[in-house]
Amino acid sequence: MRVVVARHMGFCGGVRRAVDLALRAARNGQGGATTWGPLIHNPQEVARLQREGVRVAERPEDLDGGAFVVSAYGVESAVLDAARRRGMPVVDATCPVVTRAHELAQQLAEEGYFVVAVGDHGHPEMVTLKEKLGDRVAVVHTPEEAARLRLRGKVGVLSQTTQSLENFRRIVADIVTRVKETKVINTLCPAITVRQEEAHRLVQEVDVLLVVGGRGSSNTTRLAEIGRQRGVATYHVETAEELQPSWFSPDVTVGVISGASTPDWIIEQVLQRLDEVRTQLGG
Ligand code: SF4
C-alpha cells in the first residue's frame, strides 16, 4: 500500500492566527476567552481549546466574563454589541483575507456596482457582508439562484473566500452575459484553492482518497466531493479511530489530504493509524 500525503495540510494562516489569539486571550489570567459558536469547524480542536479555557457561547446570556474573540470569518454586529455591553474586551481574530474581501466589496459598491457575492447563506462572512452593504449586495449560492436575480446596470461579482472555484466560475460565466458591465474580483482564498487544486491532482494518481477534517467544515467537505465526483473511493474522517482497515488493500495507492481547519495533531494520528493498517495488510 502506497501513501501519498498532500503538500498543503493542517491549519491555514487565518485559522492558526485565530487559534493562537484565542489561546493567548484565554491564558492572560483575566477570566478566559469566549467565542460565538465554535471558533473553527473542527470539534476535536474546539474541545481541546475548551480545556485550555476558550469557552463557546451559544446564547447571548453565555457572553459573560473574559475576552470575546471574533472568529476568523467575523461575527454579526448584534453579538459583538452584546459582548461589548457586557464589558468584554474584544479580540479580533477576523482573517485578513476576509477583511480584504469585504473591503473590495465595499469599494465595488462605492463605485456604483451592485454586488453579487457567491457564498453560503448564513455563513458569518456573508452575514457580516450583508450587514455592511445592505441592499447593495445579493448573496447567491447556486447558479440557479444567480439566474433568478434581476440584474441591471453595473454588477460586481466576488466570492466568499472559501467557495469552490467551480461554483464561482459557473456563476460568473452566467452573469457576464446578462448585464452591460461586469467587474469580477477573485476573492477566493489561495489557501483554499491550492487545496482544491491539489485534490484534483491527487485523485488522478490514487485509488483511495482519505480526507481529514471536521464534518461541518465546508472546505473539507468540498475536498471529499472532488474525490467522489472523480469516482475515487473517498472517506472523510474526523479522527484516526474512524479509519477502517477494510477500506484499503495491499495494492492500492492512498491519497491523504486535510481541510484548512484540521490541526496537525489529528493529521499525525491519522497517518500513524494508516501506517498500522499498512503493516496489518503486509505493506
Ligand atoms: S481559509 Fe483563507 S480566508 Fe479562511 S481563515 Fe484560512 S486564510 Fe483566512
Describe the protein in words.
With 283 residues, the protein is α/β, with parallel strands linked by helices. It folds into three domains: 2-10 and 191-280, Cobalt-precorrin-4 Transmethylase, domain 1, CATH 3.40.1010; 13-92, Rossmann fold; 96-188, 4-hydroxy-3-methylbut-2-enyl diphosphate reductase, catalytic domain (Cobalt-precorrin-4 Transmethylase, domain 1). It has ten helices and twelve strands. The strands form three sheets. It has a four-stranded parallel sheet with strand order 1-12-10-11, sandwiched between helices. Strands 3-2-4-5 form a four-stranded parallel sheet, sandwiched between helices. Strands 7-6-8-9 form a four-stranded parallel sheet, sandwiched between helices. Strand 10 (208-212), helix 9 (218-229) and strand 11 (233-237) form a beta-alpha-beta unit. Helix 8 (190-205) runs parallel beside helix 9 (218-229). The chain is flat and about 65 Å long. It starts with a strand and ends with a helix. Bound molecules: iron/sulfur cluster.
What is the count of DSSP helices, taking H or I runs of 4+ residues?
10
CATH architecture of the largest domain: 3-Layer(aba) Sandwich
Strand order of the largest sheet: 1-12-10-11
What would you call the shape? flat
Task: List how many beta strands DSSP finds.
Answer: 12
Q: What is the count of distinct domains?
A: 3
Bound molecules: iron/sulfur cluster
